[in-house]
Design a protein that fits this description.
Three copies of one chain form a homotrimer. Chain A has ten helices and eight strands. The first copy, chain A, is of the alpha/beta class and 260 residues long. Chain A has a single domain, classed as UDP-N-acetylmuramoyl-L-alanine:D-glutamate ligase (3-Layer(aba) Sandwich), CATH 3.40.1190.20. The first copy, chain A, starts with a helix and ends in a 9-residue tail after the last helix.
């Protein structure tokens, strides 16, 4: 797997401006919408049980995040994921803090049955999701991405999906081949919901080109790694990082990955 | 209709600091509150069915936005809008993505019966609201403001309200006379919920001076056009646009519209 | 009471990275999470009735804010506060706009019975909470902190808790001794939910060292006063204030309070 196609994915996304339906947590909604707009996608945040199935069918992809989950949202997510499965719309699962409570574990077990195209989490979440006992601690990862590589491959093979693990080194795997991505910046864990925004970006890239979800997922991770690196060079702290990061996402061009 | 009174509206708003009750979507809450504070208004976000009627009566105006609507919020919005109607408090309707789903169309039909003082939307939303079939696509507009001028005039006349249409060119109409506003910046559609914030700003201006809702609405649009232009000159992308835009709103003075 | 221990509290917080469970309003969630991360704490926003008690037991502290309260959230807050009381986890109450509606007054009366370790509000809210009739006006304070000093002391003594009053001059009291803090910046009331973020910061400091809640509370207020002052010097308005404030929180070191 090479990074040659990543630039093509960004070209695609700019051409398609994929309508990306996000059912995400309250903390991440604004920042995820701004991340999608900066990248060139078209975000839509809506979650009413009366309309999610109808809207999923208009969308290029669905991104689901359980960060601030409650019963009505879990119900809508299940309706939306079922509609996505029925219509062949790719959907992304972000299992925030799945290891932290029994409620999250039960919900994620139900969601895995609805066949996400991609699962995006930190190492701790991927380990939990793979059934390995791992005490959760909010949305922060307590193990390295490498530790989660085996779990990610197992999960990807069992589910027949892509698994993306965020960390100092990112890992994207389809269970057979894996891609490691380096980059980003030490300030990124000090800014809230960047991981949630990455899951939304994965949905946008996969929605823009559903034919190759593994390289589409890698393109989203690559955009974050590059924009994060650039923003980190500009920033004096996590406050100035955020606008610099959105600017950097906006300024990314497909040429960044063109071999010279 | 001239822009001479616009500066007077800003003077009024600065003097009155109108308490502006917003029942808006989760994505827009923080940015709308910051927009109102930067302008000099006093925002309040609350939506519990037990208290909205009581709070509407304390408020200068109510702003309603259906972006992330669900049944409990729709219920509270109806209570609040009814209380506003009963107490003569002006209220603004932002019919986000009304064309996208049947659920939104039904809800907006019910809300129109409660007589908003102003409707603020993009061209696509105003067309949908006027009953013209127009396939919605999230919160993004797919037709120009000019295309929606006829619809806006019809809607304003039927409803006896002001209609404001956001776009490259903004249109504000009472159904008989229309005002076109130029300005803003190409980055504005790349920042989420600026339109929602504009609806909140319209409520604040109309609340500060309910005697002339058409020029009050134009004043809000004018502030956004000017601040957007200034912020766009400062910004390197949508990330740096946002703080620059809030700063520019904060720095606006009534003199901006004073003839020299 | 001297400010000597404040630097020690920041050292503690940096060492412990206290997991701070926030059940807060929609407007404040993102900014409170970023404030906690900038300070060096670990935020977690979750509110489902099925999991809050379980999560409180994992957390160093709980922060409760009623800004956008509704019945399901009030229910979860009561479960979480009861779990905190049972497990000896300190919890902070931010009674946003308690004077504005009967619904908020009733809810706060119930929450006071669950024994918060700290109450953080503006002068108007502290006066209302102490039973002094004071017409509320959204989240904005309409009386000075000094006016609320007597109310704060009475409330602290009655409740056996710490009360922190935000304003131009901050007051922190245990009902017997009081500390006044100066600093901050005139732009701070023009940025939404800084007060809510301060309540979350108080929870983080008290969670990092529950043995001295009064100086821990003062440390949180002190960080805000200092970071606010620094950010105000950098900012051109409320938009640029926010990233500068987060950067300043991030750059604070325990040395700031070391006598030279």
């Amino acid at each position: 797997m090479t990074i040659a196609p990543l630039g093509q994915h960004l070209t695609h996304l700019h051409q398609v401006t994929p309508l990306t339906h996000c059912i995400t947590n309250y903390v991440a909604m604004n920042s995820s919408a701004n991340i999608l707009l900066a990248l060139g996608a078209s975000p839509a945040m809506l979650h009413a049980e009366q309309e999610v199935a109808e809207f999923v069918r208009l969308s290029a992809a669905l991104s689901v995040n359980i960060g601030t989950i409650s019963a009505p949202w879990a119900h809508s997510i299940q309706i939306a994921a079922r509609a996505a499965q029925a219509s062949g719309t790719p959907w992304v699962l972000d299992p925030v803090a799945v290891g932290a409570t029994a409620y999250r574990q039960q919900l994620c077990a139900e969601l895995l049955a609805l066949k996400p195209a991609v699962i995006r989490g930190n190492a701790s979440e991927i380990l939990s999701l793979n059934g390995i006992a791992n005490p959760g601690r909010g949305a922060d990862s307590t193990v390295s991405s490498e530790d989660a590589h085996t779990a990610a491959r197992q999960l990807a093979r069992q589910q027949g999906c892509i698994v993306g693990v965020s960390g100092e080194t990112d890992i994207i795997t389809d269970g057979h081949q894996s891609l490691r991505l380096y980059g980003g910046h030490a300030l990124m864990p000090r800014v809230t919901t960047l991981g949630c925004g990455l899951s939304a970006a994965v949905a946008a890239f996969v929605g823009a080109d559903p034919t190759s979800p593994v390289t589409a997922t890698a393109a989203a991770f690559g955009c974050f790694a590059l924009a994060g690196e650039r923003a980190g060079q500009m920033a004096s702290g996590p406050g100035s990082f955020t606008p610099a990061f959105l600017d950097a996402l906006y300024q990314l061009t497909p040429r960044i990955w063109t071999p010279v």
